[in-house]
Every structure is written in C-alpha cells, then in structure tokens.
Specification:
By secondary structure, the protein is α+β, with helices and mostly antiparallel strands. It is 27% helix and 36% strand. It has three helices and six strands. Strand 1 and strand 2 form a beta hairpin.
Amino acid sequence: MNDTVLADDLAQACAVAMYARDRAAQTMGITVLEARPGYARLDMTITETMINGHDIAHGGAIFTLADTAFAYACNSRNEANVALQCSISFTSAARLGERLVAVGEQRSGGTGRTGVYDIAVLRADDEELVALFRGVCYRVNGTVLQEEPES
C-alpha cells in the first residue's frame, strides 16, 4: 500500500470515529461523504426545524454544517484539533428541502499548532455558492482515534 492510500484510510477512520461521537451532526442529519487528509465533504438537507423567520435556512444551521466540515478536515490526520477562530459570509439563501454540500480544504498548517481551512457551502443541485467559511484550528493534546481499553 502506498502512503496516500494509508493517509486516506486514516482520514476515513478518523471521520467514522468522530461521527460515532458527533451527536450534533447526527441530530441535524449531516453525513460525511468523503474524508482525506486535510479535506472533508459533508452534506445536509434543510429541514423545517432549520427555517428562520424569513422562511429561509437559519444562518446557524449553515454555519453548523460548515463548522462540521471544518472539524472533519482538520482532524483527518488523527491529531486532535479544536476551533480557534471561525468566520462565515453568506452569499445566497438556502430553502426548505434543499441539500447543501460543504467542502472543506486545508490552506495552511501542518508544521505548527495551527491550521487554516476554507469551507465552501454549495447548493447540491446547481452548485451555487451559499456561504464561505474560514476556520483556524488549534492542535491540542490527544488523538481522534481512541485506543481500546485493555481487558
């Protein structure tokens, strides 16, 4: 097996482990479509409980999808990372029933304790940009994959 395959397998294992513990993503119907080192692609369908008073998707729901993609991308190398700073710009409204896809990609990092990631949130049917999210992560102690306790 080559290093790329091993790294991709590790990223996928991290995504599976994180999702098993990620009650927020599970509750909101967020699913992981793809995970690679420094990259994640997730989706979510806008439901009734995500609609705001303007009859469009609440910005917090969109932010949560983007933040979740950020988390899966920056934790894809089995090094525990948390958000240090995040910002979002909304570019188009999302509506009830629309499926959104968040694509997170590493822009810098890997040598220190911080990394920068950009996440594009797109409408799945026409790939129109709904939001741009930038997150800065901070590496903390620990790993994503937790060792099994010895019996």
